[in-house]
Amino acid sequence: MLRLLRRRPAPDAHVIRPPGPRLLRRIALRFFQCPPRAWRTLPGVRAPVILAFILPLACYAFGLFPAFSASGECCSPLRLPCLPAAFHGEDLVDAPLVVVDRHHVSVDGVVVADTPELGDALEPLHLDELRVLLVTKKELWRQVRPDAPFPGEVLIAAAHDLPISAVKSVMASAAAAGYPHTSFMVQKLYPPVR
Fold first, then answer.
1. Tell me, what DSSP letter sits at residue 42?
2. Whole-prediction pTM value?
3. What's the confidence (pLDDT) of residue 133?
């Protein structure tokens, strides 16, 4: 009795047929119902194939543009603090970047000290880890460029609401490491057009 109730498979069920026009029906967009003339002239290429290629490409491209940053901020583990604004700023220099925010002091992304400890001190503190890291960078620079004189410049990106003792401690440690020239990173303002 079970044999009688079981359906027999169709003899041509294993055959793969090309899809018919049923895939392009009941689509509300007029675009699909009547493709542009240029698409109709392309031999063997239909609108869904072109859209299947263009739409993911556009989504990928527009998804990446907001995250792109030419300064490399997206790649660093620490974000830059809210910088002070200034007129007549100059372009950035090739120097070690010391970021001083509310929580940490870091050199090129490596945390070397805590900022709350620096803010309470009346005298500038010497940060040994910062000094050792800057001396290491100085020796590496001299190995890479033995002919050129060492510029001795460090770039400090400090938040605008930090106590001055934290910034003074960073500057004193940089000077002790052999970096007498200090540049501060600011948001560049442009004077109004007259």
1. S
2. 0.56
3. 92
